[in-house]
Amino acid sequence: MRTPILLLILLLAATSSFAERYDLVLDGGRILDPESGLDATRNVGVTNGKIARISAEPLAGERVLNAKGLVVAPGFIDLHQHGQDVDSGRVKVFDGVTTALEMEIGSPDVAAFLKSKQGQSLVNYGSSASHVAARALIFGAPLPEGTLLPAAGPATDLPATAEQIQKIEDRLRHELDAGGLGVGMGIQYTPGASRLEVIQMFRLAAERSVPVFVHVRSAGRVEPGSSIEAVSEVIGAAAVSGASLHIVHINSMCAKDSLECLSMVAGARARGLDVTAEAYPYTAGMTFIRIEQS
């Protein structure tokens, strides 16, 4: 009698996947799930806009999409997206990106940024609080609308006084209160910022439990001003402050010393520091020269 009962159980298990109909079924795709490590051909059942089941067995749905030969994965998050217009968002969707954040430098006015995106964006959005913009504002040279970086001048080249550093911190607190997701620093674009100013920004981030996203101070092999020195600066700031650090496009900043810079990141992580980095998959870079009319 045990065999018929076992067969009945197997039959019920095999047919149970058909018992429920899902709003949408993604049929036969290669499922990639970074959280669980799953990498296999599966069927996905979606109900009320949420994944209800992932199964190796066939699933029934009101709508079935053939995903054979395609990858099905959670939406990708781009932490370094300067193009925040609708067309850029549309391109991101085609690449599987569902969240595109302006974290490297940050928006000069987080509240205005979020308001401009509300109901207009095809993807999830957000911004860091911009140290560059806060510095420019405190130096009396607020950034023109639509720009992320100041023109060369006192706001970029001069060291800040203790009073100015305090005002920069106050501005960043205001921006974090408005919804900033972290502190964005482009130290190469504010070469006048002292090492102490950088550490103070990291301390502020640690105080607010938000990460710091950094375009490091310099690139190259010549000391002073090498990539190794620049990466050491921000890892040191993370160590003394306790802030989480993300180094942007470490490949283009470190170039021939990229492996050494990555080993520095690995060493910091091995010793308990929350340090990460990103690398874009190409060798090009971009900057520009702007002449201000007096």
Description:
- With 294 residues, this protein is of the alpha/beta class.
- Helices cover 37% and strands 25% of the residues.
- The chain has helices at residues 2-19, 86-94, 110-117, 131-138, 154-157, 162-177, 195-208, 227-241, 250-254, 258-270, and strands at 21-33, 38-47, 50-55, 60-66, 71-72, 76-78, 97-107, 124-130, 183-186, 212-215, 245-247, 275-277.
- The strands form 2 sheets. A 7-stranded parallel β-sheet has the order 6-7-8-9-10-11-12. Strands 1, 2, 3, 4 and 5 form a 5-stranded mixed β-sheet that branches.
- α7 (195-208) links the parallel β9 and β10 (212-215).
- The radius of gyration is 24 Å and the shape is globular.
Helix and strand arrangement:
Blueprint: H1 2-19, E1 21-33, E2 38-47, E3 50-55, E4 60-66, E5 71-72, E6 76-78, H2 86-94, E7 97-107, H3 110-117, E8 124-130, H4 131-138, H5 154-157, H6 162-177, E9 183-186, H7 195-208, E10 212-215, H8 227-241, E11 245-247, H9 250-254, H10 258-270, E12 275-277
Which features characterize this protein?
seven-stranded parallel β-sheet; 10 helices; alpha/beta; 25% strand; five-stranded mixed β-sheet
Low-pLDDT regions? none
The string of secondary-structure elements, in order, is HEEEEEEHEHEHHHEHEHEHHE
Biggest sheet: strands, sense, closure? Answer: 7 strands, parallel
User: What is Rg?
Assistant: 24 Å
Strand content: 15-25%
Strand order of the largest sheet: 6-7-8-9-10-11-12
Overall shape: it is: globular
Q: Which percent range fits the helix content? A: 25-40%
| DSSP helical segment count | 10
Distance between the termini: 96 Å
Number of separate strands: 12
Mean pLDDT across every amino acid position: 91
Q: What would you call the structural class?
A: alpha/beta
